[in-house]
Amino acid sequence: MSESAPNSPENLPKLDPVAVFFALGYDSRWAILKLLADGRARSTGEVATALGRKLDGTGKQLKILSDAGVLDFLRGEDRRQAVFRIAAARLRAPAMLDLGFCVVDLNQP
Predict the structure, then answer these.
(1) Does any domain span residue 35?
(2) Quick one: three-class SS letters along the chain?
(3) Pairwise CA distance, residues 75 & 85, whole Å
(4) Residues 83-107: tens digit of each pLDDT
(5) Domain total for the chain?
(6) Which domain holds residue 91?
(7) Is the pLDDT of residue 1 over 50?
(8) What is the CATH number of the domain that holds 76?
(9) How far apart are CA 47 and CA 33, in angstroms?
């Protein structure tokens, strides 16, 4: 019996497809995923600046994606240092997001 690597898709929590599709079904959240598709972790402020959006609205969209399990939320020493990212195990290839029940090509419009 072989064990899977700790950072493999098999070790990630199973996602609820309804919650995931709800999270993916909004233009702002899709833009956030495309931005984070390179695997880098970014703060709410960095995401808001990169997308030309307001901080509060961006924070809300990041929380929805995080609550659905699409993004990881990494808490820093204080709130300003918290960052969001796509789990490395969910990135099958650059911009290819493996959700466990489907693979999403983030290069698509």
Answers:
(1) yes
(2) CCCCCCCCHHHCCCCCHHHHHHHHCCHHHHHHHHHHCCCCCECHHHHHHHHCCCHHHHHHHHHHHHHCCCCEEECCCCHHHCEEECCHHHEEECCEEECCCCEEECCCC
(3) 11
(4) 999 988 898 888 899 999 999 999 8
(5) 1
(6) 13-103
(7) no
(8) 1.10.10.10
(9) 10
Could you read off the pLDDT of 2-54 as tens digits, one per residue?
A: 454 555 666 778 999 999 999 999 999 999 999 999 999 999 999 999 999 99
Residue 3 in tokens: 């064990």
Per-residue confidence band for 75, with pLDDT thresholds at 50, 70 and 90: confident
Owner of token pair 């609550």:
67
Pull the structure tokens for residue 24. 């993916």
* Among candidate residues 73, 64, 65, 68, the one with its CA nearest the CA of residue 16: 68
CA 106 centroid distance within chain: 11
Q: What is the pTM of this model?
A: 0.85
- Tokens found for residue 102: 């489907």
